[in-house]
């Protein structure tokens, strides 16, 4: 039996937490032979609800679940964590953009970055889900100077999965046929879902679809606005699909990406495609627990304008949180 992996989850009593924890404990994230210890964090008023979730986890009798810690103290929840899923933050409501949450949520990631820096495993892999995810990941990274900045990532995988389905539906194929999707930039309405490198059954997706109007007026806006459409329809922000994307993100990071495909992760930009000092959505391949940005893709003028626009928004968000950076 392998040694258990310690998985910290913040906002564990929330909506996403409720869709996420049971799947982690069942082995969906790290594999059917990998035991886990869940280290759950929420704020003090949410601890009774968290305790209810823990009772349900107990009642599932998951063979892979080797322990559960619950706390309102990040230093307890992050102690020796190998993986940290930072979900806990306020969701937006109708009519808000995700960056409107910076004020309410940014400070959470200062404190949590510091706590990770102090007590987590030196190799901790961090995924920020709480919005605005890219800039919150940037805040946490800057407040954790002793940890590897490359290990701070933001969730773009929900956008990636959304785009895959739009293309599969448009081409009358299934998800299994769609490869090499990219979501450049920010998890926000400026994100750029790019099908020009994607493939459907091995054929270039843009060539196969051959419908620039559909790309510009349907595909791109649908993916960009999907979060808002779900909030409008459900009255609550996406939760099960967000939890699923978090599982996909970590599973690929830890266990690797399939040959001939890549995934999108929000990762620190260090000059790739001309961007730096941001957490930017890039195509990455993963192997042996490490990701590498896919370099050298040809970028058209159409794509470049959109990639620059989302980078600009990220730099504005970064400038707005200067006071939260160490
Ligand atoms: P929710 O309100 O149901 O749950 C949030 C939980 O976080 C609550 O239990 C709350 O008590 C807790 N929390 C608040 N402050 C905390 C803190 N300082 N430390 C620990 N826990 C804290 O919200 P949700 O629907 O689960 O969404 C959580 C976040 O994820 C939101 O910001 C939402 O916008 C974001 N989100 C991101 C994506 C993405 O693709 N990146 C997708 C969906 C949702
Ligand atoms: C999403 O994309 O569904 C989440 O980020 C929630 C939101 O505010 O859109």
TrEMBL record:
Its EC number is 1.1.1.37. Catalyzes the reversible oxidation of malate to oxaloacetate. Residues 157-323 form the Lactate/malate dehydrogenase C-terminal domain. Pfam families: Ldh_1_C, Ldh_1_N. The keyword Ribonucleoprotein does not apply. The gene is mdh. The active site is at 187 (proton acceptor). InterPro entries: L-lactate/malate_DH, Lactate/malate_DH_C, Lactate/malate_DH_N, Lactate_DH/Glyco_Ohase_4_C, Malate_DH_type2, NAD(P)-bd_dom_sf. GO terms for molecular function: L-malate dehydrogenase (NAD+) activity. Belongs to the LDH/MDH superfamily. MDH type 2 family. The keyword Zinc does not apply. NAD(+) binds at residues 11-17, 105, 112, 129-131. It catalyses: (S)-malate + NAD(+) = oxaloacetate + NADH + H(+). It comes from Deefgea chitinilytica. This is Malate dehydrogenase. Keywords: NAD, Oxidoreductase, Tricarboxylic acid cycle. It comes from the Bacteria.
